[in-house]
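[Meeting: bench + compute handoff]

Bench side (C.D.) handed over the final construct sequence. Compute side (W.E.) agreed to return the predicted structure before the next meeting so the bench team could plan truncations. Sequence as handed over:
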Amino acid sequence: MDNKHALTDYAADTAVMNTYGRAEIAFVRGDGCWLESETHERYLDCASGIAVNTLGHSHPRLIAALQDQAGKLWHTSNLYRIPGQEAVAKKLASLSGLDQVFFCNSGAEATEAAVKIARRAAYEKGMADRTTILCATGAFHGRTLGMLAATDRPAFRTGFGPMPAGFAHVPFGNMNALRAAMGPHVAAVMIESVQGEGGAKQVPNDYLADARAAADEFGALLIADEVQAGIGRTGHLFSFEQSGIKPDIVALAKGLAGGFPVGAVIASQAVGAAMTPGTHGSTFGGNPLAMAAAAVVLDVLTEDGFMQDVRARAAYLDAALTDLQSVFPSAISEIRGRGFLRGICLAEGVDLMALVAALRDDHLLCVPAAENTLRLLPPLIISRDEIDILIAALHRQLGVA
């Protein structure tokens, strides 16, 4: 594998802090599922800014909405009504079956707020000791100090001192372990139905329904972390929909505004009522620009036939990935995930980062994940022809891996 775009020590010649292992490549424009570099090379984007570019790049309706709003008003703060918030919140509440929405700027802020809401709801019911949030091994809920405690991977925690208390972990997908950890100290169970960063693993079919029942039995809340798996990425607007359950709290971000920073927390009336003026806030959260973009994404995803077409094209990808595994059984140990949040779990001897770099040199962008997993996160608008291009690149590079 010729690694011409290897990761570089980015901080060596720039004032940007060296917190990322960046590839030596910069993109200057995008169109649909394609990005163009500053050297005028085109790349099929199956990373989507890490599950962010829901509608691809330069979507005409997103451009029009942001240009229109930019000429009117950017920011006022949450000291005043923001009509765009009211419209997007109403739609999110209706689509989720819940009642109230808090807007923030990112996934970590959304999961942090979800935890605060869950604990505050218990406090308001006179259960101040009910503070523990049960999370899963392999989970990734964000990089703030609080969400590092919710995330159990030591690599993210090293050097950041003691983790905040109030979080515990049970084996991913193990209902017996979850039930054994429940008790009067548990405020909520927080679950990713598909662990993106954790290797595109999805919970067993009945797990969410059983977790909902266990939370009800022990008086705890259920938080659905939909930051990566939500907004259509798994084939439904929310990844919990297929289970038939309704969480108490839902955390959203990434794809909600198609590339404009925004996060959201949706909660039931009973839970959200615990949050009163002064209990939480955000300077930028839900500003008019973010709401203009989020409104377009939700409108497009809820148009008649859109999600059905996403599921049909995702099934086409699934069949192609299954065939790929049959061709390279010694390189691929498992195909994971669903919809357009897919993982190719590589055999132990296959170098994941070398494969990511080789695919990038072959003009295909994808994302590494835990457990030696290659993550595919294309825009939801990817066509069958573009899926064929993706699979062809995988064939070429796995053939020499």
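W.E. noted at the follow-up: The longest strand covers residues 332-338. C.D. will use this when planning the next construct.
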